[in-house]
Each structure stands twice: as structure tokens, then as C-alpha cells.
Amino acid sequence: MAKCSGCGPGYRSPLDAMKGPREEIVYLPCIYRSTEILKPDYLATVDVDPKSPTYSQVIHRLPMPNLRDELHHSGWNACSSCFGDASKTRNRLILPSLISSRIYVVDVGTNPRAPKMQKMVEPVDLFWKCGLANPHTSHCLGSGQIMISCMGDPAGNGKGGFVLLDGETFEVLGNWEHPGEAAPFGYDFWYQPRHNVMISTEWGAPKALVNGFDPAHVKEGLYGSSLHVWDWTTHRKLQTLDLGEDGAIPLEVRFLHDPSATEGYVGCALKSTVFRFYKTPKGDWAAEKVISVPSKKVEGWMLPEMPGLITDILISLDDRFLYFSNWLHGDIRQYDITDRRNPRLVGQVFLGGSLVTDGPVKILEDPENQPQPRPRIIQGKRIPGSPQMLQLSLDGRRLYVTTSLFSGWDKQFYPDMIREGSVMMQIDVDTVNGGLSLNENFLVDFGKEPDGPALAHELRYPGGDCTSDIWL
């Protein structure tokens, strides 16, 4: 595309995005569901500009009009997929609620540092128009519409499917998928129009996971282990890739950012594996395991073996590094993925978790022979919980992390985080040789919020980021 002054939102290419301005503020939802505090969830705006007098502070809070929504992941009304459309502007943040099934539309364009509510889509619209509930991932489409994956039906069963919203009025238009082609436990998705493909993942049945994790539910078939391959043009489901036991609970799916790429990665929580998916010479799709974090034999925990529990992954915009968090073990890992089939571990940092030396868990056997990590203390604050949601700066040099996964699971695995609130941290990244180091000057302590300790989740930059932008 020729250079133009009137192009639409985002960036022309992933490499152009890497040259974008440094992030100055971050939006992240803060949750009170499953805590002792009967207050609405809210959208926090955090100052991440080191030159600012309010650096690493919450500078604005937008409360939702309802209780117990469980805000989770967010998306945009427009992103780099609309770059060629000068009539589009990235000025609305889409906030689905995982438990209440409401969808909030937030105006972040009028005053980016003080967002305001624009519209609320009621659950009944999802129920009646689509037969779906529990919305999760929101992506804008090149058409100007907004698509949101849903995990279940109104009864809490793991039906799965995709809701379409009008990109201007935010009205529910209907289902993206065809009748009878629902994908069970619909969690995350990513599309690559150049290859006419979308791939979606599975978490579990909402009624099974709502208040915590029960390993028996896995054996009962209430959690997923498959990727689904869709024809992007016809909306037909083409393939289901069963990842087997090693691929149980495949969560975040990330194509390489290069829009011509025919491969990507998915983090699978239960066995702590990463699978590479790819297009075969025949034109169909396949998957192979490329990373496996071994479980540790322990005592003092709910099971005799503790998995890492990979809960979030992302890829740098130049497609060189892959990052993921082990929410139980407590570490973040950085892999060089220049050799796509053989990722190489180049960075690791422990920030809390369930294995800290002064906790109740003792490691009996560790295939990686790592010492038990010490508790992490930043600015006098002991980190409760464990690294979970990740967001990378456009230039790849700063990795932001929050510690809350989902309030029902937080309460089960990290009750101290329910009492003390989650935190937001920043890690400095060596983008030359690989390597991760904690920035001791940055800490947002959500235990000190005005209404009491809150659980902060996914991070978004106003100008887009490496987990929300898709290029055509």
C-alpha cells in the first residue's frame, strides 16, 4: 500500500508497529467478583511513562454499572486490520464480561486518560440472538465489524461460538459460525485472511470452571483439548485438531504477526506445553508439540505433581521471541523462535508463584534441577499470586505482567491475592541475546485501591499491541 496521510487505525505492518511511539498509559480491567468486596469491576488507566509524575500509578477508574461481571479480555472497535480504511478510528474499547455475559463499549477516544462508558450490550441479546453466553476474546475485523468468541450457552454448557457486533452501533448482529458448527468451549481465536483461515481454541464449560478447578472435570470431558480450523470466507469449520492429553486446555492462540505466515503457537495449560500449528504441503493444517515444561514432584500441595500451568503466551512483533507465563510455578519464560520448530529458552524470571521457599510446598523432584525460588519483594511489597497476563511493548523491550488469572481460580490457588490484591510489574527485555530482568522501579499495587484490593487482568495500550492487532 502506498504511503498516505489519511490511513486508518494501527500500522501498515508489524515491523512498522515496532517503530511506533512508546506506551504512556495502559488500560486493564480490575475485578471484584469472588472477593469479599461488593463493588463493580472497573477499567483502570495506569501511567507507564517514566517521565511522568504519576508513573506506575492508577490515574483513572471507570466503574461498571453492575456487580460481579468478571471483566476479562478486551478488544478494539478498529485495529490494524482496518489500516486501509481512513474512515475508521481506534477509539472504543470492547469489554466482554466472562460471567455476566454483558459487553461494555468504552469511549477511550474523547479523553484517553479518562475513559467513559458509551454503551452496554445486555446478556439477553447474546442469549436470544445467538444462543451464546460467556464472551471471551474480542477482535475487530477488516470489514469494520467486531467478533467475540463465546465459551458457552446460557445454561453454562460448553457450546462455544462467535458473536458479531456492528462496528458503529455495537448492536448484536448474530452468529459468525453456521448453525450446528459450534466449537466446544470457545475460548480464543486468531485469523489470517491471506490464507483464508481462522484458528480457535478451547477452555472449558463455564458451569465447571466458574468457581474453581476440579481435576475430575477434565476426565468428565468438561475441558477441551482441540484446535478448530475455519474457512475465513465461508465461516465453515474445516478441521478439528485433537492435541491429545499433552494439549489439554489450549488457551491463547497466536499466529506469527507476519500476515503471510502459515504457522503459529498455542499454549496448553494443563500439561504446560506449547504446540506449533502449521499449514501442510497438502493445504490442510497440523500441530506438533515444540515446548514442554515438566511438572515438579511436590509435597504440601493439592496433587503430588505440580504443572507449570501455561496461561498466557505472546509473540514479539518481529516474530523472533515467544513469551509465556507459568502461573503455578511462578516464572515467565522467553524463547527464541527463529527456528520455528525448535524454540530455544533464552530468558526466565521468577515472580512469586506456588513454589516459593517459605511456602507450604516442597519440591521433591524437579527434572529441570532448578532451586526453589525465593519470594519476590518489590518496593517492600511481597508479590502475591503469580505472573499471568502479559503484554509486550511495541519495540519488544518492556514486558508488562499482571498476576490474576480468573477470580474463581485466584481464590482457589492464591487466596493471599484475594486478600492483598494483584500487582502489575514490568520486566526489561534483552532483545539482542535474550534475557529478562525485573524493573525494581515499577510496581502498581492493586491491594491499595480506594474500594479495597482488586484483581487486575489483561493489559491494552491505546494505540494497539501485539495481542490485539491483526494485519491483512
UniProtKB/TrEMBL annotation:
Primary location class: nucleus
Enzymatic reactions: methanethiol + O2 + H2O = hydrogen sulfide + formaldehyde + H2O2 + H(+)
This protein's pathway: Organosulfur degradation
Localization (cell): Nucleus; Cytoplasm, Cytosol; Membrane
Keywords of the record: Acetylation, Cytoplasm, Membrane, Nucleus, Oxidoreductase, Protein transport, Selenium, Transport
InterPro entries the record matches: Se-bd, WD40/YVTN_repeat-like_dom_sf
Top EC category: oxidoreductase
GO cellular component, one term: membrane
GO annotation terms (biological process): protein transport
E.C. designation(s): 1.8.3.4
Membrane topology: Peripheral membrane protein
Any one Gene Ontology molecular-function term assigned to this protein's record: selenium binding
Assigned protein family: Belongs to the selenium-binding protein family.
Biological function: Catalyzes the oxidation of methanethiol, an organosulfur compound known to be produced in substantial amounts by gut bacteria. Selenium-binding protein which may be involved in the sensing of reactive xenobiotics in the cytoplasm. May be involved in intra-Golgi protein transport.
Protein known as: Methanethiol oxidase
Gene: SELENBP1
